[in-house]
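In response to the reviewer comment on reproducibility (Comment 2.3), we provide here a single inverse folding case reported in full, input and output, so that an independent group could reproduce the run without further information from us. The structure tokens appear first.
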């Protein structure tokens, strides 16, 4: 999948942590045959950089009736990770109508480069779950942010692959840690951040232990790769 990166830096003063796009044509009124959903999905941009199709984590293949224009789509004919809001309408035949799409950070677990420092600045952990299709482990969190004192100040996040433990029965456990460098950005308010960790690098049946530093202590979640 394209746009899969180990470490991602971002300026929170220039953009929200959840970059989104919306459909100007969407009517938010209640309709008898309108059902709005919000799903994490792999979304496909066409050659014109418009979001046109999606595959949700539940396995639903969607083709949007009207493509969404998303400023965060930088390259056409590419696949991105997103939180997609849409509705299914059945009044005059089945339709999938896009409402909005929020970009989700896709972070591949990677080794920390030799000589590099490990940063574990705290976050506020809100939720964590294994995608229904088993392809991703998702994190919902908040980072403390504010107007930085310098244009060079920014958050950097990533997922560090620390160690692999092999047990007597041959099973393995992979230890991951959330990398977070606040980079001098002040902590005035909280901004939501969603992260998806692709699991294709791990074997089926392996265990993964995800660890993150929070303001309330260490967050630990262990799960088995499907």
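Designed residues, in position order:
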């Amino acid at each position: 999948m394209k746009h899969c990166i180990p470490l991602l830096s971002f300026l929170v003063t220039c953009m929200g942590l959840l970059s989104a796009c919306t459909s100007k044509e969407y009517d938010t009124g209640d309709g008898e045959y309108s059902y709005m959903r919000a799903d994490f999905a792999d979304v496909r941009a066409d050659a014109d950089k418009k979001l046109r199709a999606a595959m949700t984590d539940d396995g639903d293949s969607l083709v949007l009736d009207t493509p969404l224009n998303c400023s965060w789509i930088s390259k056409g004919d590419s696949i991105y990770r997103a939180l997609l809001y849409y509705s299914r309408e059945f009044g005059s035949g089945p339709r999938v109508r896009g409402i909005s799409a929020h970009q989700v950070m896709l972070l591949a677990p990677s080794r920390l480069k030799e000589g590099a420092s490990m940063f574990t600045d705290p976050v506020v952990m809100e939720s964590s779950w294994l995608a229904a299709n088993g392809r991703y482990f998702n994190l919902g969190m908040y980072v403390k942010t504010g107007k930085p004192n310098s244009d060079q100040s920014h958050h950097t996040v990533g997922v560090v692959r620390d160690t692999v433990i092999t047990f007597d029965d041959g099973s393995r456990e992979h230890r991951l840690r959330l990398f977070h460098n606040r980079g001098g950005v002040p902590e005035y308010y909280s901004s939501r951040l969603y992260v998806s960790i692709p699991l294709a690098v791990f074997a089926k049946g392996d265990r993964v232990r995800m660890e993150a530093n929070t303001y309330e202590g260490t967050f630990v979640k262990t799960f088995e790769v499907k």
